[in-house]
Amino acid sequence: MKNFRQATENFSPTRHIGKGSHGSIYKVALRDGIVVAIKRPSPATTPKSLKMKLSYYIFYLTQPAGTIGYLDPSYTSPGTKNDVYSFGVLLLEIISCRRAIDVLQTPASIIEWAMSLIQLDQM
Q1: Fewest C-beta in 10 Å: which of 9, 72, 99, 114?
Q2: pLDDT the model gives residue 83
Q3: Membrane spanning segments where (predicted)?
């Protein structure tokens, strides 16, 4: 607990990068330069039985940061081409009412789904 408070400068607003329904996220750079996000669960959303066991989590932030399904599979660095690809995925979601990745669909990837329709000349 003490290390988390030190790393986040006592959960300083300058370290705060987001808030969800289950808690707040704080950005921290470790000594070796790796950037991590520390999640501080909200007391109101954490069951009492887990509060003692489950007070903090650490998630590594990876590069590129983005949601699977929106990133170009050949992503190497940020740029216009990647933005256009992501925008295309967004347009496909709007037009088709499908998610970018939906494990309940076959294929799960909206891109694979759209490409199969294009190959069948149905899009």
Answers
A1: 9
A2: 82
A3: none
Q: Please state the residue numbers annotated as binding site for ATP.
A: 39
Residue the block writes with tokens 């921290």? 28
Fold for the domain defined by 2-60: Phosphorylase Kinase; domain 1 (3.30.200)
Model pTM above 0.85: no
Q: What is the mean pLDDT of residues 101-106?
A: 84
- Concatenating the DSSP letter of every residue in the chain gives -HHHHHHTTTT-TTTEEEEETTEEEEEEE-TTS-EEEEEEE-TTTS-HHHHTT-S-EEEE--SS-S-TTTS-TT--S-SHHHHHHHHHHHHHHHHHT--SB-TTSSSSBHHHHHHHHHHTT--
pLDDT digits (tens, 9 = 90+) for 113-123: 999 999 998 87
